[in-house]
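Suppose you are handed only these lines of text.
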Amino acid sequence: RLLIIDFGSQVTQLIARRLRELNVYCEIHPYQNVTDAFLEEFAPKAVIFSGGPDSVTREGSPRPPKKVYDLGVPILGICYGQQVMMQDLGGKVVGGEGTSEFGRAWVQPTEERIDLLNGWFLEGTGREQAWMSHGDHVAALAPGFKPYGTSPGAPFAVTADLERRFYAVQFHPEVHHTPNGKTLYENFIRDAGFTGDWTMDAYRDEAIRKIREQVGDRKVICGLSGGVDSSVAAVLIHEAIGDNLTCVFVDHGLLRLNEADEVVKMFRDHYNIPLIHADETELFLGELEGVSDPETKRKTIGRLFIDVFQKYAGEIDGAEFLAQGTLYPDVIESVSFSGGPSVTIKSHHNVGGLPEKMGLKLVEPLRELFKDEVRALGRELGLPDSFIGRHPFPGPGLAIRCPGEITRDKLEILRKADAVYIDQIRKHGLYDEIWQAFAAILPMRTVGVMGDGRTYDYALGLRAVTSVDGMTADYYPFSHDFLGETSTRIINEVKGINRVFYDCTSKPPGTIELE
Ligand code: XMP
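From them, the structure of the protein bound to xanthosine-5'-monophosphate can be written out as follows.
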């Protein structure tokens, strides 16, 4: 296994992700925990030093134990990690004016080539794009090191001591803006003797071991939403600790057709996981009566959700942990945006304050994973493909797909119409091409004619978007035939709708949901 020593970079998890993609097992450990004894026990086959926000020129800045250089295994230092390595081994790092470099840089090879860079430089151009983000830079290499790649701002963009198999790069090969960076990791792990035989199956076992270690024989509560993340977290934790897990499924009455039943059935009957079905439809719909402002709706639902969850969770005796399906992108977002000056576009359904309020510790077994990895883990745990591939569904549910005031009638019409729309998409084999598709019932009635009669019914909006992360999105270009057929089916099959619109707004300027 490979050890990543974390010096605090925002993108350390991306290193782990690149390695998992190459089927290498790795663990990230903060530098404070990496002692001589730790190294001995961990016995890494290779080590990576992450980047970090500090400056090695500062007294007392983070360091690895010196012993790491005596293990006889390959080491790769990235950015701050490069500077640490240079300074530890007798080179020189300088900071201050004129030493920083941020953003795109082109790295060129030196005359002498190394295996680490095999296949990395673009054929023909003899250079490759790399992402730099550093304040200090290396001014003199440590003995034994030579430069193998340079950039205008970093003469020592790529350096190595081939004898000891120590490599150090100034840029970040793990980020998206170093497009071919995976090649570097591939070369590095090959040099370290990894065969790339690690799989999600092994990840599952490791995650289970860690949950057991953290929780022991104490009790865990998990808030289940019916979405992929909380479901995968619940099934994984149940495998680890069995019936010491209880799930609380808050049903706000704003779910899609048959959704609540399906969730209950899957968890209770299929997985035998203890589940409390907190059906609080009356409470939620009651409080939402007459509310039409989008933010008030969201805040009302958020507040009730926390109250209800607390009430039901309080009935579980002796629970000490709260499980959450937090993913890595949630972790980065909350780090980089916390306290920032950004405007609130929508207050997202957020149970962030719950653990402190209830005096619970957190279990977040998916914290290191990205969405597609969670899906792979879900498959590993036997969750059905149809469930794992489901489009995201927002916490406030159908409330935000029912612009203006919510009524039970509208919700019922919306559920039926949405089901027909999704059925159409599945039948045409388009579901997996689309990030998210749903119907919204518009706050207007329009005149129509059906048979010989006049109708005065609701209009329905259809939305479908492509996206990679929900942050930006484009509308999905359905064929006219598809739209025509879908509109006909909805109007014929769902009483209460006499007109269908297709939303062809991208995000920005629109958002994905209507409210
Ligand atoms: P918007 O509408 O902001 O949505 O473009 C981006 C993504 O987030 C989902 N969404 C939510 N998810 N709680 C959630 O868990 C919420 O309050 C919420 N609001 C929007 C939305 O469905 C889309 O995937």
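What can we learn from it? The domain at 200-388 is CATH 3.40.50.620 (Rossmann fold). The mean pLDDT is 91.
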